[in-house]
Amino acid sequence: MDMTDYETSGFGMGTIIEQRIAASNSNEGERICHRAFEVIRQLEQKMSRFIPGSFISRLNSSDGETAVKMDRDTFHVLKSAGRYYARSGGAFDITAAPLTALWRNCINQKDLPSPNTIQALRPAVSGAGVILNEKDGSARIGRHQSVDLGGIGKGYAADMVLKAYKAQGVTSACINLGGNVHTLGKKTNGESWMIGLQNPRSTRGDFIAVFAISDRSAVTSGDYEKYFESGGKRFHHIIDPGTGYPASSGLMSATVLSGSSMEADALSTAVFVSGLERGMELIEKSPGAEGVVITEEKKVFITKGIKDCFVARSDIPDYQFAFYN
């Protein structure tokens, strides 16, 4: 059967969602993509801290003593977030939600928060405060704590969309949830999916390199998406839970490739916060994960496992490329 590419876009989880799948006709493509959007909307209703009545909103509104029953998806993501918190030494922490909310408003208003405000929020930031009960699927957080799954939820959603694709017989697809890219198989012409590596100091769509991937996800965390500048310094949206301030790790971006988009999502944040050495060590200790980091000195370090699928542009002299170790 001849297959053609069906493409569509929509909005969900606070971002633009683009889908491209192989389908026998447009009706089939529309049906499959509609189902994918439904999967994403259902997960958003469960996990968004901005939707009243979601499982996460209920947890954040709890008194710090009462456990709140979660559904299977939300419990799984909370449990996974706990693993990444431990593996990253706290660099990935969903309880940084109060700090994330503070800096989100500051970026929108282009105004710095006071040090006292930041210090007042820091005691509530500790991933160890998220207590999960495997027996009844409930969760509890400490008093004054709140959680935000923004650094892992889109990745999980991408994984669930690929699961839905496969259940409907799709063998070739690519979904992009606001920069969280996940691929299934290869393109209809038999070639791998080409994913661009954004130049962090140029306009959107100006790539310094591309990845050729299939059955993998690629997620980037960078200081160039949401930020403002004050006193010659860039204040972005990726918060270091240990300091309460935007991460100052010497990196401009961190990209992680993995068969799990949830893992790539969480690890890209953790690597960006951790910096070059600790970040690369974290990738190397994650089976199946690969990565690329770009330092503030415009040095691009690549893990050796993707040397055969990574192609750098030769016309950008500002950047220096090297394999890490």
UniProtKB/TrEMBL annotation:
Lineage, top-rank taxon, reads Bacteria
Q: Which cofactors must be present for this protein to function?
A: Mg(2+); Mn(2+)
- Top enzyme category: transferase
Keywords, alphabetical: FAD, Flavoprotein, Lipoprotein, Magnesium, Metal-binding, Transferase
EC number(s) per UniProt? 2.7.1.180
Binding positions for Mg(2+)?
Answer: G151, D265, T269
GO MF term (any one) = transferase activity
Q: Which chemical reaction does it catalyze?
A: L-threonyl-[protein] + FAD = FMN-L-threonyl-[protein] + AMP + H(+)
Q: How is the cofactor bound?
A: Magnesium. Can also use manganese.
**What is the similarity comment for this entry?**
Belongs to the ApbE family.
> What is this protein identified as?
FAD:protein FMN transferase
